[in-house]
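Backbone-to-sequence.
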Protein backbone atom coordinates (compact mmCIF):
# COMPACT_ATOMS: atom_id res chain seq x y z
CA UNK A 1 0.00 0.00 0.00
CA UNK A 2 1.46 3.40 -0.94
CA UNK A 3 2.57 5.68 1.82
CA UNK A 4 0.25 8.56 2.70
CA UNK A 5 3.04 11.07 3.41
CA UNK A 6 1.75 12.08 6.79
CA UNK A 7 -1.94 12.22 5.85
CA UNK A 8 -2.75 9.76 8.64
CA UNK A 9 -2.60 12.76 10.96
CA UNK A 10 -5.69 14.26 9.33
CA UNK A 11 -9.05 13.95 11.12
CA UNK A 12 -10.92 10.65 10.95
CA UNK A 13 -13.39 12.01 8.39
CA UNK A 14 -10.86 11.16 5.66
CA UNK A 15 -11.22 7.40 4.92
CA UNK A 16 -7.54 6.75 4.48
CA UNK A 17 -7.70 3.27 5.98
CA UNK A 18 -10.10 1.89 3.33
CA UNK A 19 -8.37 -0.17 0.56
CA UNK A 20 -8.31 1.50 -2.85
CA UNK A 21 -8.14 -0.36 -6.18
CA UNK A 22 -6.22 1.67 -8.75
CA UNK A 23 -7.69 -0.08 -11.83
CA UNK A 24 -11.40 0.31 -11.19
CA UNK A 25 -11.02 3.50 -9.16
CA UNK A 26 -13.36 2.11 -6.50
CA UNK A 27 -13.07 1.40 -2.79
CA UNK A 28 -12.90 -2.27 -1.95
CA UNK A 29 -14.95 -3.32 1.08
CA UNK A 30 -12.91 -6.10 2.58
CA UNK A 31 -14.14 -5.83 6.23
CA UNK A 32 -16.62 -3.88 8.34
CA UNK A 33 -15.47 -0.27 8.85
CA UNK A 34 -15.14 1.43 12.21
CA UNK A 35 -15.67 4.79 10.51
CA UNK A 36 -19.13 5.61 12.04
CA UNK A 37 -17.75 5.31 15.58
CA UNK A 38 -14.72 7.37 14.66
CA UNK A 39 -17.03 10.13 13.44
CA UNK A 40 -19.46 10.01 16.37
CA UNK A 41 -17.19 11.04 19.24
CA UNK A 42 -15.56 14.05 17.54
CA UNK A 43 -18.97 15.30 16.42
CA UNK A 44 -20.41 14.81 19.91
CA UNK A 45 -17.54 16.77 21.43
CA UNK A 46 -18.04 19.51 18.86
CA UNK A 47 -21.77 19.73 19.60
CA UNK A 48 -21.26 19.97 23.36
CA UNK A 49 -18.57 22.61 22.94
CA UNK A 50 -20.82 24.62 20.65
CA UNK A 51 -23.71 24.46 23.13
CA UNK A 52 -21.50 25.65 25.98
CA UNK A 53 -20.11 28.44 23.85
CA UNK A 54 -23.57 29.63 22.84
CA UNK A 55 -24.76 29.55 26.47
CA UNK A 56 -21.77 31.59 27.60
CA UNK A 57 -22.24 34.00 24.72
CA UNK A 58 -25.88 34.51 25.69
CA UNK A 59 -24.88 35.29 29.27
CA UNK A 60 -22.20 37.77 28.28
CA UNK A 61 -24.61 39.51 25.91
CA UNK A 62 -26.93 40.48 28.79
CA UNK A 63 -26.36 43.99 30.06
CA UNK A 64 -25.95 44.29 33.85
CA UNK A 65 -28.87 45.70 35.78
CA UNK A 66 -28.33 49.31 36.78
CA UNK A 67 -29.26 49.67 40.45
CA UNK A 68 -29.34 52.94 42.38
CA UNK A 69 -29.23 52.86 46.18
CA UNK A 70 -30.34 56.06 47.87
CA UNK A 71 -29.08 55.96 51.46
CA UNK A 72 -28.78 58.33 54.38
CA UNK A 73 -30.63 60.05 57.15
CA UNK A 74 -31.44 59.41 60.76
CA UNK A 75 -30.79 56.63 63.17
CA UNK A 76 -28.87 54.02 61.17
CA UNK A 77 -25.33 53.15 60.05
CA UNK A 78 -25.94 54.13 56.46
CA UNK A 79 -22.23 54.83 55.97
CA UNK A 80 -21.66 51.09 56.41
CA UNK A 81 -24.94 49.66 55.20
CA UNK A 82 -24.84 51.10 51.69
CA UNK A 83 -21.47 49.40 51.19
CA UNK A 84 -22.79 46.08 52.49
CA UNK A 85 -25.79 46.29 50.17
CA UNK A 86 -23.70 47.18 47.12
CA UNK A 87 -21.29 44.30 47.67
CA UNK A 88 -24.07 41.84 48.51
CA UNK A 89 -26.12 42.67 45.43
CA UNK A 90 -23.22 42.71 42.97
CA UNK A 91 -21.93 39.37 44.28
CA UNK A 92 -25.32 37.72 43.72
CA UNK A 93 -26.57 39.03 40.38
CA UNK A 94 -25.31 40.64 37.21
CA UNK A 95 -25.68 44.24 38.35
CA UNK A 96 -23.83 47.51 38.63
CA UNK A 97 -24.82 49.33 41.82
CA UNK A 98 -24.49 53.09 42.14
CA UNK A 99 -25.03 54.87 45.45
CA UNK A 100 -26.41 58.31 46.25
CA UNK A 101 -25.31 58.64 49.88
CA UNK A 102 -25.94 61.61 52.15
CA UNK A 103 -24.00 61.59 55.45
CA UNK A 104 -26.66 63.84 57.02
CA UNK A 105 -27.82 61.91 60.10
CA UNK A 106 -30.99 63.89 60.70
CA UNK A 107 -34.59 63.16 59.76
CA UNK A 108 -34.37 66.01 57.23
CA UNK A 109 -31.81 64.41 54.92
CA UNK A 110 -32.48 65.16 51.26
CA UNK A 111 -30.78 63.87 48.12
CA UNK A 112 -29.57 66.02 45.26
CA UNK A 113 -30.25 63.35 42.65
CA UNK A 114 -34.01 63.67 43.18
CA UNK A 115 -33.86 67.29 42.07
CA UNK A 116 -32.49 66.45 38.62
CA UNK A 117 -34.84 66.17 35.67
CA UNK A 118 -35.49 62.52 34.75
CA UNK A 119 -33.38 61.57 37.76
CA UNK A 120 -34.13 57.85 37.45
CA UNK A 121 -33.67 57.40 33.69
CA UNK A 122 -30.24 55.73 33.86
CA UNK A 123 -31.33 53.01 36.28
CA UNK A 124 -33.43 49.86 36.12
CA UNK A 125 -34.50 49.96 39.76
CA UNK A 126 -34.24 52.32 42.73
CA UNK A 127 -33.45 51.01 46.23
CA UNK A 128 -34.85 53.44 48.79
CA UNK A 129 -32.80 53.12 51.96
CA UNK A 130 -33.30 56.61 53.34
CA UNK A 131 -34.68 57.72 56.71
CA UNK A 132 -36.17 61.16 56.07
CA UNK A 133 -39.23 61.33 58.29
CA UNK A 134 -39.30 65.12 58.42
CA UNK A 135 -38.91 65.83 54.72
CA UNK A 136 -42.40 67.12 53.99
CA UNK A 137 -42.12 69.13 50.78
CA UNK A 138 -44.87 67.75 48.48
CA UNK A 139 -43.03 68.87 45.34
CA UNK A 140 -39.81 67.11 46.39
CA UNK A 141 -41.65 63.90 47.27
CA UNK A 142 -43.81 64.19 44.17
CA UNK A 143 -40.71 64.17 41.95
CA UNK A 144 -39.68 60.86 43.49
CA UNK A 145 -43.13 59.34 43.11
CA UNK A 146 -43.52 60.55 39.52
CA UNK A 147 -40.61 58.34 38.44
CA UNK A 148 -42.27 55.31 39.99
CA UNK A 149 -45.68 56.18 38.57
CA UNK A 150 -44.02 56.30 35.15
CA UNK A 151 -42.82 52.72 35.60
CA UNK A 152 -39.50 52.81 37.45
CA UNK A 153 -39.44 49.85 39.91
CA UNK A 154 -38.52 50.33 43.56
CA UNK A 155 -37.20 48.28 46.46
CA UNK A 156 -37.88 49.91 49.84
CA UNK A 157 -35.88 49.02 52.92
CA UNK A 158 -36.61 49.54 56.63
CA UNK A 159 -36.86 53.27 57.44
CA UNK A 160 -37.99 54.11 53.91
CA UNK A 161 -41.38 53.08 55.31
CA UNK A 162 -41.20 55.95 57.83
CA UNK A 163 -40.04 58.63 55.40
CA UNK A 164 -41.86 61.48 53.65
CA UNK A 165 -44.84 61.72 55.98
CA UNK A 166 -46.85 64.69 57.19
CA UNK A 167 -50.27 65.64 58.42
CA UNK A 168 -52.09 63.18 60.63
CA UNK A 169 -49.96 60.29 59.40
CA UNK A 170 -50.36 58.27 62.59
CA UNK A 171 -53.95 57.55 61.60
CA UNK A 172 -54.91 55.53 58.56
CA UNK A 173 -54.53 57.80 55.54
CA UNK A 174 -57.21 58.00 52.89
CA UNK A 175 -56.02 57.07 49.39
CA UNK A 176 -55.77 60.16 47.25
CA UNK A 177 -55.31 62.51 50.19
CA UNK A 178 -52.48 65.03 50.41
CA UNK A 179 -50.34 62.86 52.71
CA UNK A 180 -51.05 59.42 51.25
CA UNK A 181 -48.73 59.44 48.23
CA UNK A 182 -45.70 57.70 49.75
CA UNK A 183 -47.86 55.08 51.48
CA UNK A 184 -49.70 54.36 48.23
CA UNK A 185 -46.38 53.66 46.52
CA UNK A 186 -45.35 51.35 49.37
CA UNK A 187 -48.73 49.63 49.45
CA UNK A 188 -48.74 49.52 53.27
CA UNK A 189 -48.78 52.18 55.99
CA UNK A 190 -46.52 51.93 59.03
CA UNK A 191 -45.94 54.65 61.58
CA UNK A 192 -43.85 53.24 64.45
CA UNK A 193 -41.87 50.31 65.77
CA UNK A 194 -41.46 48.41 69.01
CA UNK A 195 -38.34 47.64 71.06
CA UNK A 196 -35.24 46.01 69.69
CA UNK A 197 -35.89 42.30 70.15
CA UNK A 198 -35.42 39.27 67.89
CA UNK A 199 -37.99 38.82 65.12
CA UNK A 200 -39.05 35.37 63.91
CA UNK A 201 -39.60 35.70 60.17
CA UNK A 202 -41.90 33.27 58.35
CA UNK A 203 -42.92 33.37 54.70
CA UNK A 204 -46.69 33.51 54.35
CA UNK A 205 -46.57 33.21 50.55
CA UNK A 206 -44.10 30.47 49.79
CA UNK A 207 -45.07 30.19 46.11
CA UNK A 208 -43.99 33.69 45.13
CA UNK A 209 -40.76 33.88 43.09
CA UNK A 210 -39.20 36.15 45.71
CA UNK A 211 -39.72 33.69 48.56
CA UNK A 212 -39.48 30.26 46.95
CA UNK A 213 -36.81 28.17 48.63
CA UNK A 214 -35.72 30.88 51.07
CA UNK A 215 -35.15 29.77 54.65
CA UNK A 216 -37.15 31.30 57.46
CA UNK A 217 -35.02 32.70 60.26
CA UNK A 218 -34.97 34.63 63.50
CA UNK A 219 -33.08 37.89 63.47
CA UNK A 220 -30.86 39.40 66.11
CA UNK A 221 -32.38 42.33 68.01
CA UNK A 222 -34.37 44.24 65.41
CA UNK A 223 -37.24 46.70 65.14
CA UNK A 224 -40.66 45.31 64.26
CA UNK A 225 -42.61 47.97 62.36
CA UNK A 226 -46.35 48.19 62.93
CA UNK A 227 -49.03 47.90 60.24
CA UNK A 228 -51.58 50.70 60.41
CA UNK A 229 -53.21 49.46 57.22
CA UNK A 230 -52.45 47.36 54.18
CA UNK A 231 -53.44 49.35 51.11
CA UNK A 232 -52.70 47.51 47.85
CA UNK A 233 -49.71 45.53 49.10
CA UNK A 234 -49.60 41.74 48.99
CA UNK A 235 -47.88 40.21 52.05
CA UNK A 236 -45.00 37.78 51.56
CA UNK A 237 -43.65 37.40 55.10
CA UNK A 238 -44.66 38.11 58.68
CA UNK A 239 -42.56 38.76 61.75
CA UNK A 240 -43.32 37.76 65.31
CA UNK A 241 -41.65 39.54 68.20
CA UNK A 242 -41.91 38.73 71.91
CA UNK A 243 -42.02 42.05 73.74
CA UNK A 244 -40.98 41.94 77.41
CA UNK A 245 -43.22 43.75 79.90
CA UNK A 246 -42.21 47.31 80.64
CA UNK A 247 -43.33 49.50 83.49
CA UNK A 248 -44.69 52.94 82.77
CA UNK A 249 -42.65 55.88 83.91
CA UNK A 250 -42.86 56.26 87.68
CA UNK A 251 -44.57 52.90 88.15
CA UNK A 252 -43.33 49.49 89.32
CA UNK A 253 -43.74 46.47 87.11
CA UNK A 254 -46.24 43.98 88.61
CA UNK A 255 -44.69 40.61 89.54
CA UNK A 256 -47.12 38.76 87.27
CA UNK A 257 -46.46 40.94 84.22
CA UNK A 258 -46.08 38.87 81.07
CA UNK A 259 -44.48 39.40 77.72
CA UNK A 260 -46.72 40.06 74.73
CA UNK A 261 -46.51 38.63 71.23
CA UNK A 262 -46.69 41.10 68.37
CA UNK A 263 -47.09 40.16 64.70
CA UNK A 264 -46.68 42.37 61.63
CA UNK A 265 -46.19 41.99 57.90
CA UNK A 266 -42.47 42.50 57.26
CA UNK A 267 -42.18 41.92 53.49
CA UNK A 268 -44.63 42.50 50.67
CA UNK A 269 -45.08 43.45 47.02
CA UNK A 270 -47.17 46.14 45.39
CA UNK A 271 -48.20 47.34 41.95
CA UNK A 272 -48.22 51.12 41.86
CA UNK A 273 -49.80 53.69 39.63
CA UNK A 274 -51.28 53.50 36.14
CA UNK A 275 -48.38 51.39 34.87
CA UNK A 276 -48.67 48.90 37.75
CA UNK A 277 -45.02 49.49 38.59
CA UNK A 278 -43.56 46.61 40.59
CA UNK A 279 -42.58 47.51 44.15
CA UNK A 280 -40.97 45.31 46.82
CA UNK A 281 -40.59 46.37 50.46
CA UNK A 282 -39.26 44.97 53.70
CA UNK A 283 -39.22 46.63 57.11
CA UNK A 284 -36.35 44.42 58.29
CA UNK A 285 -32.86 45.90 58.33
CA UNK A 286 -32.18 48.21 61.25
CA UNK A 287 -28.80 46.79 62.27
CA UNK A 288 -25.81 46.48 59.98
CA UNK A 289 -25.35 42.88 61.12
CA UNK A 290 -28.84 42.10 59.86
CA UNK A 291 -28.21 43.87 56.55
CA UNK A 292 -25.05 41.78 56.13
CA UNK A 293 -26.91 38.51 56.84
CA UNK A 294 -26.87 36.35 53.70
CA UNK A 295 -30.56 35.56 54.18
CA UNK A 296 -31.44 39.23 54.19
CA UNK A 297 -29.31 39.96 51.12
CA UNK A 298 -30.89 37.00 49.30
CA UNK A 299 -34.34 38.44 50.03
CA UNK A 300 -33.43 41.93 48.87
CA UNK A 301 -31.74 40.62 45.72
CA UNK A 302 -34.77 38.50 44.87
CA UNK A 303 -36.84 41.66 45.28
CA UNK A 304 -34.62 43.47 42.77
CA UNK A 305 -34.93 40.64 40.26
CA UNK A 306 -38.71 40.48 40.66
CA UNK A 307 -39.30 44.21 40.30
CA UNK A 308 -37.20 44.30 37.12
CA UNK A 309 -38.77 41.15 35.64
CA UNK A 310 -35.65 38.98 35.68
CA UNK A 311 -36.69 36.10 37.94
CA UNK A 312 -38.60 33.00 36.87
CA UNK A 313 -41.56 31.38 38.63
CA UNK A 314 -39.20 29.09 40.54
CA UNK A 315 -37.25 31.92 42.10
CA UNK A 316 -34.22 31.61 39.81
CA UNK A 317 -32.57 34.49 38.03
CA UNK A 318 -33.20 34.58 34.30
CA UNK A 319 -30.22 33.57 32.11
CA UNK A 320 -27.48 36.15 32.23
CA UNK A 321 -28.64 37.77 35.48
CA UNK A 322 -27.54 35.23 38.09
CA UNK A 323 -24.08 34.47 39.42
Amino acid sequence: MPQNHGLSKLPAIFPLDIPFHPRCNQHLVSQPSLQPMRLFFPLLTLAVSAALFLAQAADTAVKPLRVLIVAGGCCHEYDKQHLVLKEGIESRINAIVDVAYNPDKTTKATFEIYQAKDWAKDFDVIVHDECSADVTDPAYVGAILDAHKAGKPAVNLHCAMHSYRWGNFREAVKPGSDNSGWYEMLGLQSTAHGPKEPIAISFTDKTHPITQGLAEWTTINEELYNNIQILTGKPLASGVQIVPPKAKKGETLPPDAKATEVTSVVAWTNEYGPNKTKIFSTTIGHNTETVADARYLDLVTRGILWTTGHINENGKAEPGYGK
